[in-house]
Records
---
Amino acid sequence: MSKSLRRFRIETVLESLATPVFVLNPARVLVFFNAGCEQLTGWSAHDVLGRECVFATSPDRASLEALTGALCPPPEVLRGEHHPVAKFFAHKETGQNAARMVHYFPLVTSNEVTSIIGVITEVPRPKPTADTSLITQVHAELAALRQELRMRSGLKSLIAKSLPMQRVVDQINAARRSMVAVAISGEPGTGKEQVARAIHYESEFAAKTFVPIDCERLPAREVRDAVARLVESDWNEMTPIAAMHPGCIYLRAVDHLPRDLQQRFVDFTHSERGAAFRQRARLIVSSNDSLQSRLDQDQISEEFFFLVSGLQIELPPLRQRLGELRLFAQLFVEECNRSRKQQVSGLAADVCPLLEAYNWPGNLDELRQVITDAHSACAPLTQVTAAHLPFRFRTGLDAQSLAPGPSQVFEPLSTLLERVEREQIEAALRQAGSNKAKAAKLLGITRHSLYRRMEVLGLEHQNDDASDSQ
């Protein structure tokens, strides 16, 4: 019997089965998808054949990406291991979820996997069995959480399991239903721009452009030019395509925005043209510290503060979200899977305790880079182990564990700052002969700010009129 005839007969038998059966080649490409699979998923063989399957979750279970992700075997199967996995399938048309067990049977010839047969069977209720690996559980938990967030709030790009992040999700939902200006604060790497994009792309203005402006890294001239184009251009005249109009202006590191540009935003908002612009474009800003602290330090004006802080969202650092760290690590592993041929199932058991022991000064950005480097280093294995973590992470972890030096007696920070501020103001007043305007110039602040700080510190305003008029 010829090889082609034998293959035809096998496919005929599999096609006649009511049980959903599919076949992947060694490159994880779907080469067979029977009628049982079509009935379960709502997708036709024509839709899916030739599609590569990637070991990654998707927030939209009814999408083609979610289907191919659910059909993809764990990387261990590609090494010849039989591996049953609990999966969820959502029907393309109805969206109804179905819990199923997928059994993967790799066909091996000359110690090489030539194809993988997947058989989908019913299960009464998908529960992790005693022999289910930790990685499989985390993979399933990540998929379930992303789906829950999407169903509950429409958010596809966030992970929010902890109470602080649940509060952030509620604030995002409140923001995206209105055009209120939003101020996002948090340490570097906590995902401030991701939250800004979630607010915009889950709002009714998602079809318009998200325009990020980096007030810290861009030269001041470029920031001025960008702001001028945004607030002074007649967008209806420039292009009739609404999708090319700005729908959200995102000012990153807004405390670095020059004061004259802060005032330009304020003046533009109070104009008739600015009021119309604010009806079709939202303003979102971010800073590493709260805007209130920036206001107290006179880095932003009061008018600008009230313009941009209609809703304030504070993002917690990663060290306060350790319950979500495994999920983030799995998410970053799966992001790497999407862009690389090497498929990694997740982290070995010896990795997470090390990740949880680290302080993560760079927060999520640093974790993503560590996982990305470890993903590259673990080839050809299918799991990231402690040995694959990058050298800079391991040295950073070692540095954290060094014994502390001799103990130091600390003065309460608020008392220290108040004492230093009082000494500096008194010295400046003495040098300026009690002239408040000159003293403020010496201190590098406005006279209004000097009066406010003197009042807070209980310093007397003596001879104000006489001294300031000299």
---
Amino acid sequence: MASTPVSPRVTPPWHPDSLAARRPFLDRRARLTRDARAFFAAGGYTEVETPYAVRAPGEEVHLRPFATLREFPDGRTEPLWLHTSPEFAMKRLLVGGAGPIFQFARVWRNGEASATHAPEFTMLEWYRPDTGMDDLIAETTALLQAVLPPVVTCRGVSTDLSQVERLTLQEAFHRHAGVADLLGIGEDAPALAVAAGTRLRDGETWEDLFFRLLLERVEPHLGRDHPTYLTHWPAAQAALARRDPADPRVAERFELFVCGIELANAFVELTDAAEQRARFQADRARRQALGGQDWPLDEDFLAALAHGMPPAAGIALGFDRLAMIAAGADRIGQVLWLPPEDLMV
């Protein structure tokens, strides 16, 4: 008779021994929070709070939100979702004239758990009107240098913050994946496979192959000696970013990597309501084709864009990962006050 595997016993995160082991990481996180708030205050930002339970959590094809239900005093109910980002809410505030704003937001993404992923985590997100990609990269670099030591080490990788690397997706795929002209290939999966010297797997789409090459060949080289800003993504991979006026094949999006860890995702924001609606509808169709969850289109957000959002750039930075880098932690559970038990090991 086969025996049932026994899960290793995990000390509860509230146990004095467990908390004491994490306390140096948590104290470093607390200092990091204070320093980040001081950085934004000095830069003229206002700290805001926006709702966590929303009617529409976003249109990301591959993110899975948590569902909840609001009960009204008269007995009515309304399905709501725990947001996966405060982005839509913060952009509404830009429309209202809030000016430069930032937020430490709790966000939820179902089905995520690893050494660098938690299903509930903290996003540091900020937006500045009349800002472009170059200025946002400079400001993000200044934040890193203000809240971290000159050299940081996390998960066995040391990164010198004194200078940064900037790579476009086109350059990165050429250098690390052997694809000489990613943009010229377009969304042609067989041609991309040939250019990369790989076999197209059964049922693999261009997007599937793009991310396989990105994860397996490109990202392992990023954010190691110095922080890497990976810029100018194919327009199909930047649903909320403005197309580059100089090359409409790409959008003004960047991701930031430090200590080999993906740390942030940023856009020069799309402010055209008609184009945003079309992108939302395309993403909704893709998500539904994959059997994903559904919710109403966020008409209020589209109405805000139509009313007039100022030109702006914004960035979402994984604050727990920044805390890992600051503290030299190996796992995200070490920088959480009460992590789920599966993130304790």
---
Amino acid sequence: MRELVFELDYQTNWNPVADALVEHPEAAVRSLSCHVTPKTLWRVDLVSGSPEALSVIETAYSTSKYFPDCLVTGDCEAEAETRVLDRTDDSLVIYCVWERSTICTSVPHLALEQLGDGLLFETRQEGKRQLWRIVLSGGEPVSSFADALEKEVEGVGGISLLRLAEHSPIGSERAHDGDRLPAAQRRALHAAVERGYYETPRKTELGELAAELDVPRSTLSYRLRRAEAALATEFVESDSSLDSLFASH
């Protein structure tokens, strides 16, 4: 499996949800589910933010001029429905479905046409920036999709290709990170976790743990810091989440 990650940057006064997110930079929209057929697109989004931001974004979703992911600059004449499935003080779960007209298109529809079935979609949007991850089941060439997408977004914003790489399940690359640590560091980590050293509040202190392991306190501190640094570095290097991409761009 491979994954294609790219970013759309919407123009102002075109995408109502993007404009609402610009007004409320603390808010964000993450896809929980996204499905597409040749004629239909339906998705469930999680919107997080302040109560004021949620109200503005909910209104943006409900406007007759907005259809999720549609890339047509004018009235695409699609039939759409939006419904709030869940609501808390700082989040909304919104369901959207729209029936595609002969003139409208979207990122998932282009992907379906150019890359075929069996695609998985994930999105995250903050302000005008919307990150997309598409997981492909095979070795489909993506150049035709990229060309078609670039042509479609020309009137609504820009596009940046961030990554095309082999896709691995979350955690698969790190499943054996502990095996690459020296034995002394591994024993120190195991003991620290088992004795509650990393819990809040701590169930044991460093000196107590060192006494149990029969090593100097300074030696145990050094081993834990080295192991923590190695694991933290492994995590950052292998973290491909959309959250991490947002933070690094």
